[in-house]
Records
---
Amino acid sequence: MVILAPMPGHKVHIKCFGCQMNKLDTALVTTALMDAGFSLTAGVKDADVVLINTCSVREHAEARVLSHLGHLKHLKRQKPNLIVAVMGCMAQRLGDKLLAHEAVNVVCGPTEIPRLVDLIGEALERNAKQLAITPEIRRENESHSASLERFESAYGRDGVDDGSVPGQAFVRVMRGCNNFCTYCIVPHVRGPEVCRSPQAIVEQVRKLAEQRVKQVTFLGQTVNAYKYRAGEKTYCLADLLSLASQVEGIEWLRFVTSYPSAEYYDEILAVMASSEKVCPYLHIPAQSGSDRVLHAMNRHYTAAQYLELLNRARDAVPGIALAGDFIVGFPGETDEDFEATVKLVRQAQYRNCFIFKYSPRPGTAADRWHQDSVPAEVKQRRNVELLAVQEQISDVLSRQFQGQTVRVLVEGPSKKAHVNPTDGADNPQLVGRTSGDHIVVFNGPLSLAGRFADVHITRTSPLTLFGTLAPAPALR
Ligand code: SAH
Ligand code: SF4
Ligand code: F3S
């Protein structure tokens, strides 16, 4: 690897698509770029480098990036020295096809991010195209893992504006995925599952706490399957949560995403029930309510087993907030299969649910074996119907908060703040989340961002609670 001298003065504009994994990768790379002397710019026009972190999970996610690259192609005709770097899952999936795009100078897969700063440096120096993707990504490679680990564990944020929400940080506990759900591109672009050591994870949590981080979210594609053998002991997610909850300064711990499996489940629920720091929230995607479709998706549970897991969660952690994901229009999904999904959603009583239309991903088993047989309009109708069922449930659950006072971790100004007139610049509309991940909108001073506040709920909608700052906000 060529280590280049720091490059002071270069301005980089960063745009991030995709899931929390990508947000974390963006934060890591931003920190590395700052260390190398780059500065951030909010505008594309005055940037020397545009860096885009990309997602491949559905075709639509890729289409958004391609349209962005289309704009950059025009901009580059006026600014030929502009360097465009594409990182993330789409970089790994498309590799040199993406590099062939007129706008693109650097393509770097998610498992190659430790090299990204050098690649950008080389591109700036020589204006030559640079490609870094992992060949045979499914093969475990220890030196590769070690380099990712070194890159990741150096992450301490240290005052860098890395795009994170104030007071919050993500910590990866495992990379990759071994599940191969038949519709999913993730194992093909993020490689095999590798769990990080508990020591490295807890050390990182400690560093983040020193940076006034109050909430840490553990990330893994199947985070509840975390397993790490050290001598006689095998650590599971419950152990990580217990260890991290002893770190002074950390007030809330979350973890996403959970796979519906019984392994370590009771242990995780027990630590959630007993520790005030572990948020009573479980994101546990079902994907479908039809056993036939679940089998075709290579999901290893039935709808009945899934519901049993939810019941166990509710028994162990009263008041727990549950969230799910569903795919509608998987190949061969009949009206009957879809009705089974609707039934499951009604029974599950999720606080919130994310619903996606099936999108065939090249190279996945579902795409190789099946026609994308459900017509677009049927997918659309099922999507709308399922959303409506969930909205009703969310509405009823939200109303229970009317008149209550809830504690939130404040994120910052609400996105709609500039549309909704607020009562003064000193008291803008803020947004925060409860430990159960309910979104709460209220007016208060900006200085609350990254802190806890108590909010009295005066109005509710299916997805948002509205309220006023309680008289004596508990500032911590
Ligand atoms: N690892 C997580 C989530 C991975 S992707 C998990 O297993 O739960 C996030 C969500 O995108 C999935 O839960 C699924 O609902 C959806 N998804 C993944 N691939 C998809 C595809 N090809 N078409 C539509 N939705 C998809
Ligand atoms: Fe994709 Fe399934 Fe792995 Fe989740 S568990 S990342 S849906 S293959
Ligand atoms: Fe995440 Fe999208 Fe990759 S969901 S893991 S950024 S394909």
---
Amino acid sequence: MTDVLTADATGIARGAAILRAGGLVAFGTETVYGLGGDATNARAVAAIFAAKGRPHFNPLICHYTNADAAFRHVEANGHARVLAEALWPGPLTLVLPRRADCPVALLTGAGLDTLAVRVPAHPVAQALIAAVGRPIAAPSANRSGQVSPTTAAHVLDGLEGRIDAVIDSGPCPVGVESTVLALTGPRPVLLRPGGATVEAIEALVGPIDRCAPHGVEQSNKGLPSPGMLLSHYAPTLPVRLDVRSVGAEEALLAFGPALTGAGATFDLSLAGDLTEAAARLFEGLWDLDARGQALGLRGIAVMPVPEAGLGLAINDRVRRAAAPRVAGS
Ligand code: TXA
Ligand code: MG
């Protein structure tokens, strides 16, 4: 049984008690729901991988209440301090070298000598981490390879009975995961586009390198970010991109005024607003996958989204949803 907790003092105290005892609690962040466990407790972290059915090579993000707490566990550099000052709390994750005395379980970082750290802006996430008094390891609260959840109902859809509780924190305002940036070399490297835009980051630290998503034909060994595996956000129905026309046997994920003729339609943003579209993206994929299957449709067709600002993160996620499926991604 998975308890649904309210996002008030009682629910947060209960969630924190479960986490301190090594249990698993999903909670809202500004990006997507996280599947939280005590990052310093390797058994709890292992339980996260098990609940998600996640391959162990894929490291988790550690969540903190503020930059000072995060930088006690990793070696911050100049770029890290500038970015943290400007963009934390917020949808940015920094990959930095672990400190020698870092108490975070090695399994959290999948054995790497780096650790991904993030300070979420959501009040429920902030209150929960503060109440636990330890960093919380939290991947997105979905079964591995499935669409990331932006409501408590989505979390339950994938993880009911597999986790102790979910704190119903309402819909996630940003709606796509955090931007993951590696700060371990001379130049920052974008490992995953997300809620913090490349434009905002480059305005603070100058040009950053892009790390192209890895094709499924490549081995998982040596990936700079194992989560870059291409097929990762997979609805059950096949996904077709950049559609200019749509048939009655398809479900349509629209951006701007919708094409006509689809068997089912979800409009990410009628006004063509990228922030609104990002916030509704996973909800749209979930909705069309469910309705499309119920109606016997044969796939999800996605209208083009501009490759700028949050459009990078949106296109990254729909490209992965459309990529050939690989077992265990
Ligand atoms: O918005 C988010 O980031 C959400 C919320 C819950 O905070 N979390 C999230 O976690 O999306 P997850 O586990 O689904 O994605 C973490 C990403 C993966 O692509 C992983 O490979 C990468 O971060 N990552 C984590 N630690 C890393 C490390 N040490 N080096 C390189 N990449 C790392
Ligand atoms: Mg994920």
